Amino acid sequence: MSTEAYATIRTVGGLLPPDLLARVAAGSDLSGLTPGDYHLGSGESLRAAANRSWQYLLGVWTAYRGALAGLPAGDRATGLTREKWLLVLARELSFGRVPTTPAGGIVSDGKAFGVSHLWADLPMHLLGWGTDLDTRTPGVPGAAGAAPQAMVQELLNRSPDHLWAITANGQSWRLLRDSASLVGHAYVEFDLTAMFDGEVFADFVLFWLLNHQSRFERLADETPGDCWLERWRGVAATEGTRALDALRGGVTSALAELGTGFWAHPANTRLRADLESGRLSAADYQRALLRCAYRLLFAFVAEDRGALLADAADPIAAQRYRDYFSTARLRRLAQRRRGDSHEDLYAALDLVFGGLGAEGGLPALGLPGLGGLFETGPLDAPLTGARLGNAALLAAVRALSVLPGKAGAPRRVVDYRNLGAEELGSVYESLLELVPRFDPDTRRYELVTAAGNDRKTSGSYYTPTSLVDLVLDTALDPLLDEAVKSDDPAAALLGLTVCDPAMGSGHFLVGAARRIAKRLAAVRTGDPEPAPGPVAHAMGDVIARCLYGVDLNPMAVELAKVSLWLEALQPGRPLSFLDAHLKLGNALLGVTPALLAAGLPDSAFAALTGDDKKVVSALKKRNAIERAHGTQDELFAAGEVEAGLVMSNARLAAALVALDSSAEESGGWSGGVGAGAAEALVGTGVRGATTSGAGSASAGLGSSAEELVHGPGGLGRVSL
Hints:
Shape: globular
Strand order of the largest sheet: 1-8-7-6-5-4
Helix content: 40-55%
Radius of gyration: 28 Å
Number of strands: 16
Number of helices: 26
Largest sheet: 6 strands, mixed
Strand content: 5-15%
Structural class: alpha/beta
Mean pLDDT: 81
Low-confidence stretches: 638-647, 664-720
Oligomer: single chain
């Protein structure tokens, strides 16, 4: 379910997920939805009570809009909006006459917050029609010092006595919660203008159910943390974990459907011959299938967030895409049909993927050339020219987009709009444990857990969010605190360099980007809790200038680009702007200073599960030669130096900074320092580096990263 089902309701940051809103509206499968829970009389239904309020409020709304029209231009209409609309609306939600906040506002942690009204422990900041909730409004109490949304959010984050809040201006009504543990915004917004002007009663019923006084009153343990809204949020969190587990299973099933579908298609004789003869390994086939599945996932997320099509796309072309080629259409078909042996759906999907991978995009469908994950490369070779029947494709799409419900419960549609980088990375991590297996007799392809899987051979282990947050708390936050105290805090924040030498799918980098972007937006706006718009703008700057990463797994590098692209959320911008920042290679260094000074020992080159022993032996011999010639601590080999290429790490860093400065002056996002920094880190390492993400844990080749970072022309501070 998506909030698109409710035209006037928008959920931001997953505060109350769309799935939960649908269950509340349906009035089933959740506790707290009986008439008694809403303090209604015997025999009175919730819908009837909501309808009674709706009929009354339609008249109130009409009278209020008429009164607004009679005000002089520039009037904020604060008193009119409160008395003739918002307080009346609150009364219909059973709050009674909501009292104003005592003089001085609500004081928490030594700071006063000018919230207008307070019901029990629920702050209600009610403003006029002409007051924006996301920006400061000079001369307006409760909006002059900080944006109303930012002020109320800061209060919730500081105060242990207030968990939920409401802020409204007559046009919009927002339901907020303490989000101190989060970096982004989290709220549910109700567009009152669209709701009442359009007479959207179904949306009003959900508004009434979620904002009724009974949803905020304390229940059993008499704490702010025990109310119906908080209980529902807990249910959503628990079931969200289960849904993520189900999505992992869905991706596994989708890969099996795709693998079997391609293998069994009568036209794919070359593919079958290559697989059965061994010319194409099961592992390479699996990587091609995984790339196809993640292209689908990326398209689902980008499309549902409205970020896939370029803003400048021709409206007719964009509509053509939505009507006949979109993944939303494909997902709808998967829910209604089983499919047949025709191939038109995959042909259309292949056209879309090809357009997204092409440099110029596909203007006929309004598609930009994103490149990156969609760009054709060696990993795609097994499926190049292959055909797939509709039944197999729809089965794979169904596995990716619909989750099975609990016993007796309906199936759930995956909410890709709010699927984050953490979830995408977690799904990817779970697939590393699986290896492909064929059954030649039945022509079935499946994934099973076995020894020697990619997780073990590459040392890839996904770092949970709790550990990522701990590292960011202790390593990054002190640097952010120091930066905001400088003479030019914005420049200091953008001057930070964060490198993850084993980035996996970008979990750590995404977390770092969110924190830096929030601080940068706060500096630029002056609001401790900046609105989503300034944060989004800051996010683009941070991703372009502050983040670097390396990983041993090529698929992980592509997914890291996808994760950061989704955070930047700049529709139509090519994924290639991250190519210079996120590189394929092995950048981990696991030695002590003493061992580094003595040279990398030959014992570091031990064959692991799945390694080619001849290759390992050759590397060991090469290492001994490099150690003997004293060239292990340089980026370039001795032979290259003898050939006339003279370059030290310090000189390389200085050249890279010059290149980056030149790129910035010309308006480029990804300068030479990005490419060079990431490439130089491959085989060099960073002192004090912390592994995160589904990255490689094998040893790198070693170099003086201290010189690269802090030496002449160095790259700046590296924080992990």
